[in-house]
Amino acid sequence: MTENQNIDAVAAAAAAASRPFARTSPRDRGAALVAVADALDATAPELIDIAMRETGLAQARLTGELRRTSWQLRLFADTIVDGAYLDARIDDADPEYVIGPRPDLRRMLEPVGPVLNFAASNFPFAFSVAGGDSAAALAAGCPVVVKAHSGHPELSRRTAEVVAGALREAGMPEGVFQLISGQQNGVDLLKDERIRAGAFTGSTHVGRMLADIAASREVPIPFYGELGSVNPVYATYADDALLDGFVASVSGSAGQLCTKPGFLFVPDGVDLNAVSGAAASVDEHRLLNPGIGRAFSQRRDDVLGADGVTVLSQGEVRVDDAGQTYATPTVVTVDVDTLTQNREALLEESFGPLSVIVRYADRAALPALHTELFPGNLTSTLHARAEELADESLAPLVEALAETSGRVLFGGWPTGVSVTPAMQHGGPYPATTSDATSVGTAAITRFLRGVSYQGAPQALLPAPLQDANPWDVPQTRSAAGRSTTWGSFAR
Amino acid sequence: MTENQNIDAVAAAAAAASRPFARTSPRDRGAALVAVADALDATAPELIDIAMRETGLAQARLTGELRRTSWQLRLFADTIVDGAYLDARIDDADPEYVIGPRPDLRRMLEPVGPVLNFAASNFPFAFSVAGGDSAAALAAGCPVVVKAHSGHPELSRRTAEVVAGALREAGMPEGVFQLISGQQNGVDLLKDERIRAGAFTGSTHVGRMLADIAASREVPIPFYGELGSVNPVYATYADDALLDGFVASVSGSAGQLCTKPGFLFVPDGVDLNAVSGAAASVDEHRLLNPGIGRAFSQRRDDVLGADGVTVLSQGEVRVDDAGQTYATPTVVTVDVDTLTQNREALLEESFGPLSVIVRYADRAALPALHTELFPGNLTSTLHARAEELADESLAPLVEALAETSGRVLFGGWPTGVSVTPAMQHGGPYPATTSDATSVGTAAITRFLRGVSYQGAPQALLPAPLQDANPWDVPQTRSAAGRSTTWGSFAR
């Protein structure tokens, strides 16, 4: 599959596929997702080879990521197949309805139409061509156009070829999956009226620019952007095991993860010596591309040069002849006052292997400090000893974390993001541009909208709303005669 | 209750109420909603008196509207009380999870925080201070600030007094319900970082302006605006009963309803004589305020003056000494070509008792025509004889209506909007600024966001996610050991 750079033709093909794709049953669409998963698994060695070359990520990491990507498709297939995601609701006609006779009303969720998905650089499988946003939109029944990330063009083309081929063989309509490349093409297509939703994973700067374009269209569309996150971690203690885990989380995939812990808060006076040893044992890792390398190098200089910063691990940054950047972890420490007084230099996300350990004197001050410094993050984490977790003294901090984050962890590190029904990968801005999640089965709903049918004859109702229920989906029925008892629980 | 015009103090009070209100149980919050309903019912005669004076709407209409408003609160109370709306999900920890060991993950929906609700003029109860957006946000657990509509200031103050008083007596926190007035105050508060979502019912012009403000904040927030809708009706026949029903729907509440049918498509050559008789029997009705009167008069002049328009009922427009406008229904007819050639004059919404009957020659051309002319509406309606509805010849038209509307009616008139689980009152832009519904129980979800807790000790989990489940809410459990079978249905 070569990208089609005729944006008008791409939009036309997506729009043409929209209605036939929306008509497919959850079972047929689910089987098509499984076919895509099978095809990706079958092509794994070739895809991983290309990915290693284009991204500098390690084989083990890429193997796990591709496995996650194909299983994600299988999970989404399983999620839609019973039709519960359609939220089919049937209100029986009720002549005695208290506020006036109620007609027969039936509501379900239907696909919004063509979705434009801007792929990320840092997960060439899981957040790229065949990644979560594509899987969710296809599961919902929406044609997908992926704007390839320039960091892995060959992988994008080959992956799109595999995906589109599998969908075609599974009987899905032509035009249901397309690939484009180039920033201007992405912007132009985002402005096209035939595109009905956008999805994005990347930087705050670019994400906000695209979100603003989506919002300022003549017909605005929802834009699900995952932007920036620094994922603060609060520890009531710090031993060597905790610090080792921290360094591993900061340096995994060279710190190029949206859930990398950018800040670790520890009590004043704890021994931080283990950090330098742990950091020194981390091998040099290539950053994804020269642009990310330059940006990281600059952010690192800013942090190292900020007033009041103490270096725990200086790390190294090296640029090879091809312009690629290689780095080892940099970890610094500051006290709370230094952090609050140097916000500009210190608070911004550092995309790469760098983190800041913040020493605090007053645990009781943490909830307010967190709310002030970190109003929107994908995750926040609390490390405390079992006896502290058993009572509720930490409740105010947990409440502050929950108000400002999509996911709150107790122990562990945020860089593991499982794909499950209960995952939330999306938090208050700037973590994401909406409160929705881009990981886990709840991500599918982003690409659906409610439609009600009033007084419809059976023959003209969509299958999930028919009395005969040919797809055997769960239907929630609101029986007649119940409106007189509303609120009576409160008597 | 007098409005507080100190916007900073209003925002501070709403923010202060946010956490204690979020902590209330669905049962306590539901009981508070029922208390509000009881208080409104107890004050009905006084409220209706003020409303009649300030809006010119008839006593019977206002009595029904207030009844609907208090029952809506009871329905929402009933909806939240069992906690199903929290969508509590629990993933058991799974060491054998296929993509890597899965931690214990628990997700629920939590309130987004303070909501600013811009009240509408045309429903002084159901879409105003105590209306659907306020009820939905309170049900979700979000503090509410209502920006009063200038069309019924005294009613707004008195209603807010009743609502706030009932919430206080029910033990809800101070600051959970506040009223402001004045356009600039509304805009200033919408820009305040402590406001986390906006809701609006009104004109496309003002709604879009506010939506743009919400989207361009440093921290953008969701804005649920209900803007403009012309609610086309397609009839395969037209007899006197149908035309009488049409005129009644166009002229009810002087046509000042967001679901008023602005266009009725009928086959060329049907007898439209019944229209003038039906329209002539409609009494003069005051429009809501002088501004709406002037705008209606101008729109009516534009329509009457457009090329190719034939008048079926001229109607009358009269302005009294106080500047209030009184009108009787105006109905005109055009053919399809006239409509498509005079879009500027004819397609815009006329807020008042005016509608356009469009004569079509080719029924097969209707789906494409509809999609082109009416890309976003709250409702669309099909009137066809029983034998036509029994087969699928009308399916393409129904599909086009469903793609472009929130609610598709088969017979009946869109101006009745019941409040039920399966109602969808929200459609593609410009009908609404999001795909969400502002009527019915699905409206509550607009003011919720997902939060996941990973590896949390029971003592620090919100009640709905605890194993002990003290609120007895439905919990969806994803058991360990199932991930190996994902997608196996497709084998």
TrEMBL record, chains A, B:
Which SUPFAM superfamilies does the UniProt entry name for this protein? Answer: ALDH-like
Going by the UniProt record, its keywords in alphabetical order are: Oxidoreductase
Pfam families with a match to the protein in the record: Aldedh
Q: Does the keyword Oxidoreductase apply?
A: yes
Annotated Aldehyde dehydrogenase domain residues = 4-363
Q: Where is this region: Disordered?
A: 471-491
Question: Which chain positions lie within coiled-coil regions?
Answer: none
UniProt xrefs under InterPro entries? Ald_DH/histidinol_DH, Ald_DH_N, Aldehyde_DH_dom, Aldehyde_DH_Superfamily, ALDH_KGSADH
Residue ranges under compositional bias (Polar residues)?
475-491
Give the protein's recorded name.
Aldehyde dehydrogenase (NADP(+))
